[in-house]
Amino acid sequence: MSEPVNFFALIAHALGRVPTELIAVWIVMALLLIFGYAARRALSAAPDPTLPDQGFSLRHFAEVAVEWIDGLVMQVSELHGARRYVPFFGSLFLFIVTANFMGLVPGLTPPTSDTDLTFALGAICFIYYLYQGFAHQGPRYLLSFFGPLWWLGWFMVVIEVADNLFRPFSLGIRLFANMFADHHVLTLFTGLTYLFIPIAFYALGSIVCVVQALVFVILAISYVRMAAAAH
What we know:
The protein contains 7 helices and no strands. The chain has helices spanning 7-15, 20-45, 58-77, 86-101, 115-137, 153-192, 196-228.
């Protein structure tokens, strides 16, 4: 069986020494920017922005997505003023799910099947929830690393520091491992079979793409909730 063509690799080769994953990330960002611009144009062109469109439209899809993400962030974070986190986690979810779905297009590889990207996303979430911890608690946020009992502080601080440092790694390795395995299983079985069996694997692959994006974002929101509510 011949090796499938990777169009990202072809583009990277044509541009010179540009990493294949970087090309994929640029394409994902371009798709999301085009989607956001088109949805904003559709909203601006509406006679009454407070009234939904009749039937299915780009504006309707965008509004449903924003409302769903808004509800997800508010339910998981359980924080006062949780709506301030929606732009960050909404962007994170849309980026990851779009990158994941790249793997379902023949000839494309999901950029989330590369550790460089997934660990970078984990590091961004790590910095974000530390920032939120200090923003909510101030310097008192550091006291949460010592635990509730002062005489166990020396021991708890080691555990808490190790736990916090492991979080971005666990976020990155979980997303990478699942998307790497999903893409290779999909490529293998769709190359060996025809008709109905590939459809089933594409359906399962779609579920994996959405679930892995959800798991990543829900865990990241949970870290922000713990940092913001630390005592």
